[in-house]
Amino acid sequence: MIILKEKLVKKNEVVRQRQKYWFLEQLKLAKELDKPYVIHSRDAAEDTYNILKESGYNKGVIHCYSYSPEMAERFVKLGFYIGIGGVVTFKNAKKTKETVKKIGLKHIVLETDSPYLSPVPFRGSRNDSGNIKYVVREIAGLLEVEEEEVIELHLTMLCNYTDWRIRLMSNYVEIESTSGLDMAVRQSLKFKTGNFVWRVRFNTPLDPRTVNSNTMYVTSASGMLKVNISYDSSRNEVQIEPLEPYAKDEVYSLHITKKVASKGQKKIKKKKLKYSLNYKSLLV
Questions:
Q1: Alpha-carbon Rg of the chain, whole angstroms?
Q2: Rounded to the nearest 10 degrees, how much is the dihedral formed by the CA atoms of 102, 104, 106, 112?
Q3: Which residues have CB under 8 Å from 252's CB, separation 6+?
Q4: Cys-Cys crosslink for 145: which of 33, 74, 78, 149, Cβ 3.0 to 4.6 Å?
C-alpha cells in the first residue's frame, strides 16, 4: 500500500479520507487471508502509524523506510519489520544509518527496491538483487557484526513469512518445509551458493519415482548445471549435489516442479504454488 505524500493531499480532506478508507480495507483483506503486507509510506508517518495501530493486524514490512529512528521503534513495537535497502550505503543517509543502529538486526528486512536506489558503488545505475551484498556489508559495519550474522538472521526472519526453514551450514544450504506438501513445493529457489550442496527436506514423504532430474534441476544464466539427485526417505530429504564446479559470481536456481508428488501421488494444490520463494542469497 502506498500512501501519497501527505503535503499533496492535506488541502483536500476528501482525498485524504479516501486514502485512509482504502488503506484500512486492504489491511482488513490481509488479516482475512492471514497474509503479511508491505507498506510504502511517504510523508505520512503519523497517519500510517495510527491506522496500523487501529487495524490491530500488524504483520508486515514498512518498505523503503525513510522516517526517523524513533518512529521506526514505534513501528517495530507494533510488530513490523523495517525495510532497509541501498539508501543505507549513501553518505548522507544519516537517518537510515541511525535507524539501523536503533532497532537492531532482528527487526530489519534487506531490500533492493529494484530497479531503483542502487547502493554505493552503483548509485544511479539500475538496481537488482545482486547488489544486496553491499547493503549487508554496510549494515554489518554499522552494527559491528560479521556479514554472515546479518545473512543468517535475515534468512531466519524471512522464513517467518514463508513455509521454509533455511539454514546456512558449512558446506550446504538446507531448506526445510514447515507445513504440508501443499505448501512445501516451491519453484525457482535462488541462491548464490558457492560450493554448497542443496538439501531440501519436506515434512511429507515423497514418491521416490517423482524425485529425479526431470522434476528437480538447477539452472543459471549459462544453462543447466549437472547434478546428482538422491532422496533419503528416512528424512524426507532430497539432496542435489553438483557434478561440476560452480562459476564464480553466478546465481543458481533450484527448480522444484509441480511433478514432485507425495506418496500416493497426492496432487499439489495449484493455488498454493503462486507463493514462490524467489530469493537471491547474500553469500559472497
A1: 21
A2: 80
A3: 190, 191, 192, 193, 218, 219, 220, 225, 246
A4: 149
CA-CA distances (angstroms) from residue 56 to 28, 30, 45, 83, 178? 10, 11, 17, 20, 26
Q: What angle do helix axes 94-103 and 69-78 make, rounded to 10 degrees?
A: 40
For 2-51, how does the pLDDT look when each residue is reduced to its tens digit (9 = 90+)? 454 555 555 578 888 888 888 889 998 988 888 888 999 988 899 999 99
Neighbours of 10 (CB within 10 A): 12
**212: number of Cβ within 10 Å:** 13
d(CA 59, CA 80): 6
Distance CA 211, CA 42 (A): 47
What is the 3-state secondary structure of the chain?
A: CEECCHHHHCCCHHHHHHHHHHHHHHHHHHHHHCCCEEEEECCCHHHHHHHHHHHCCCCEEECCCCCCHHHHHHHHHHCCEEEECHHHHCCCCHHHHHHHHHHCHHHEEECCCCCCCCCCCCCCCCCCHHHHHHHHHHHHHHHCCCHHHHHHHHHHHHHHHCCEEEEECCCEEEEEECCCHHHHCCCCEEECCCCCEEEEECCCCECHHHCCCCCEEEEECCEEECEEEEEECCCCEEEEEECCCCCCCCCEEEEECCCCCECCCCCCCHHHHCCCCCCCCCCC
Q: Which amino acid is at 51?
A: I
Q: Which residues contact 160 (CB under 8 A, 6 or more apart)?
A: none
**What pLDDT, on a 0 to 100 scale, did the predictor assign at position 154?**
78
User: Alpha carbon 194 to chain centroid distance?
Assistant: 20
